[in-house]
Amino acid sequence: MLERFLTGASTYSQSIDHVILVIALLVGFWLIVAEAVFFGLIFKYRQRDGRGSQYVTGEEKHLKRWITVPHILVILCDLLIIYAAVRVWIDVKQTFPPAEEKVRIFSQQWAWSFQQPGADGVLDTADDILTVDELHVKVNTTYYFELRSRDVVHSFCVPSFRLKQDAVPGRNITGWFKATRPGTYDIQCTQMCGVGHAFMAGRIIVETPEQHAEWIRRASNPALAAQPPPSNSGNEAPQLAEVRQ
Fold this sequence. Notes:
- The protein is α+β, with helices and mostly antiparallel strands.
- The protein has five helices and ten strands; from the N terminus they run ααββββββββββααα.
- The chain has helices at residues 13-44, 61-94, 209-219, 222-225, 237-243, and strands at 101-108, 111-116, 129-132, 134-138, 142-149, 154-158, 163-167, 173-178, 183-189, 201-207.
- The model is unreliable at 229-245 (pLDDT under 50).
């Protein structure tokens, strides 16, 4: 239902949408009931000529039911929401499927940097592909990501994947996703991180296996793979070393 307004492009996007829908329906139902009772009582017991006011202590049993019965029903609805949310939390945050690919994500003011394997399929080798604000992934492939921050707290968010994970300085946070639809999707930072926060945007490009293989072929440098890892001298080595810290 929510996909009418925002595309769902990951394996767990639909599960998260269902939790949001359950919360919206239950909260919306109780909002309508509460407002109907509220305005109904105002209308029924409005001031009228010849009708005196009543002194209510709140101890009357027939009046207590107006509080206790809705209270119990709301608690039951809360338990339903908690059950649905915990199930999705376990599936997304606690139960990781086997990894097929790995990517490293760096957040910094105010850009996203990505490090992913080159043609050899192994991370932290000489042919790693380094990109800024653009991540290429293969459709129907489970990716593990290592999320790091180089300065302040950021939050890696891909709305179409229903993916959001904070990046905390000094921590290496692992998560996963599996894209199900080829296309280009927005990457956002959803944690205020300074004056350039609004401009910290990127994109994730989900490709077919053939498209992704062609991108890797063009993006990786076969000549670089045959050379020894760069030393710490020169202009390029410090940046590469920083990316792999």
